[in-house]
């Protein structure tokens, strides 16, 4: 999220919007870490993003569900996430950990289990 520039070209402090900017940066951090296959760093962001879901660009549950449904759209092959299907399984696990009323469709579970 852009915070503007001072007259000397340095980034301006987002006075009064610090929390919104921090949540936005945390969401960007989550997305970057997922795309790089750094699951543990991405996972560390999930709970806070879930708590601040009214200030994020999109609900973290929707993001986890989308990744679980379409894991091949993201980079994989690193040690911590060797295949897209491992990433799907990790997203399902994290989605369930959020303890919400909404459940993922059973076909996502079955497909991921079959591919692992």
Biggest sheet details: none
β-strand percent reads: under 5%
Tally of contiguous helical segments: 5
Rg over CA atoms: 16 Å
Shape: elongated
Low-confidence stretches: none
Average pLDDT for all residues: 83
The class by helix and strand makeup works out as mainly alpha
Number of strands: 0
Helix percent band: 55-70%
Q: Sketch the topology as an H/E string, one letter per element.
A: HHHHH
Quick structural overview:
With 116 residues, this protein is mainly α.
Explain this structure to me?
The protein has helices spanning 18-36, 39-51, 60-69, 84-97, 106-115. The chain is built from five helices and no strands. By secondary structure, the chain is mainly α. It starts with 17 loop residues before the first helix and ends with a helix. It is elongated, with a radius of gyration of 16 Å. Helix content is 57%, strand content 0%.
Key words describing this protein structure:
116 residues, elongated
How do the helices and strands line up, and which of them pair or pack?
Layout: H1 18-36, H2 39-51, H3 60-69, H4 84-97, H5 106-115
